[in-house]
Amino acid sequence: MTPSLLERDKLYYKLDITDNLPPGTDSIEQFEVSPRQPRPPPRPKRPVPEWPPEAERKGKWIWRYLDKLDPDTEYDQIIKTAIFFMANSFAFSAGYASTFIHLVQTPAGAAAVHHTAKAYRRGHQRFFETQDYFLDWMWYGSGSDVSRKRLESVNRIHASVWKNVPGAYSHPWEGEMAIIGAAYFETYLRKLVGARRTEPHPNVQRAWPEWGERVCAQLRTEPLDGSRSFGVNFPRTWAEVEGFYLWFQRIPMERYTDDETRRKAHDASDAFIRQFSVMWFPRRLQWFGRQVVLTVIPAPIREHNEIGHPNPVTETLIKFAIKVYLDTKDALPDPVRPDFSDEYHAAKGVNWKKTDVQTEAEWTRRDRITDAILLTIVLVGGMWALWQLRIFSV
């Protein structure tokens, strides 16, 4: 008989991966008994160099600016620069959907997301809240007072879940994937579509493990697991970050999956895909939004979560469009302003509790306008055709 949620514990959700340790973990003993603890933040060596004045931001100025920063101590500034000058809401939204579809493969991830039901009932609100947490950590820095308070808020949210789903937050490596997903998604995308440049700036590569470890260090597992840091055994290098991301994709989840987990993983994945599609595409093109997400999800995960596969022709077109966009962006001068920061700060003035209703209502309004335009085109075209037939019949 399957135990109820409250009767389960961390052993129920534990995956035996001792024969396939995640990159960043050196031994079974380190994984199970004596985990490597996250490093404390280093002391700064100097005042962090500021962004150059806008008048001096010409050509590929971001690359030159990143060259001047020290990834061992100035990783916060490196991540802030890379994200807010080069990212955008569409890419962040696609990465959010992709990462959480990865996470709900595991029994613990599927149980946690399913229990809150927020992904189903208030998907846009959940996205904006999650985005705001991540961007706060990136804008203010992993060790800032703002980030500490926001990370503690996440701990409280997790506590509200593990009180009802004990064992769901007892495995640090699963939580680390959320941060690693944010770090590696663009690189994964570039390699997937065959972009000309596939790797980030060397200092960005070195900064991500430093930043990610300091963020995860402030997140805690549940008391059932001893309230450990989520930063234990965090990948120490970019190669380990990349290896961890790809390792997570290749975990043989069929060994650990029952019908309940597979159903929850499917339902949650569908919810994340729908949220992305509704947020970015009108009703008649939401099928295309689904194709976009399916294209960036590896086939084994699509199969495990039973969400189907992209149409081969559409998949090819999507990859080509992404490649053209990335190659064009790389060829153009760097942006002068951190436009993503404008979007991030503007979103703080939005009542996220209403975003789901407002988004649906806005697309409904636009669809009505589109329907009216299409109907007008059809009527005018029909009248013109009838008129032409009348002329030729005379």
UniProtKB/TrEMBL annotation:
Protein name: ER-bound oxygenase mpaB/mpaB'/Rubber oxygenase catalytic domain-containing protein
Location of the region described as Disordered in the Swiss-Prot/TrEMBL record: 17-53
The organism's place on the tree of life at top rank: Eukaryota
Record organism: Colletotrichum fructicola (strain Nara gc5)
